[in-house]
């Protein structure tokens, strides 16, 4: 069953995630306050970050870095800084 949440990232009510995708308190906060659309945007950034910085998800420090970036992106409105990434010009 679809459920709507007030997405603090998009600043509007939108379809929420179907289940908690991330463990712990942060996962609950994401589940309660972040829409599918916003989380999808984060996942794109996360993939770029992992690739650019050659992160290893078995490495605790790398996971911690990713979690900090996720929190900044979703809840603090900070853009994810990806070295060497230049967004495509909008035509």
TrEMBL record:
Family: Belongs to the Fe(2+)-trafficking protein family.
Protein name: Probable Fe(2+)-trafficking protein
Keyword annotations: Iron
HAMAP family named among the record's database cross-references: Fe_traffic_YggX
The keyword NADP belongs to this UniProt entry's keyword annotation: no
InterPro entries: Fe_traffick_prot_YggX, Fe_traffick_prot_YggX_sf
PANTHER family xref list: FE(2+)-TRAFFICKING PROTEIN-RELATED
Function summary: Could be a mediator in iron transactions between iron acquisition and iron-requiring processes, such as synthesis and/or repair of Fe-S clusters in biosynthetic enzymes.
Record Pfam families: Iron_traffic (PF04362)
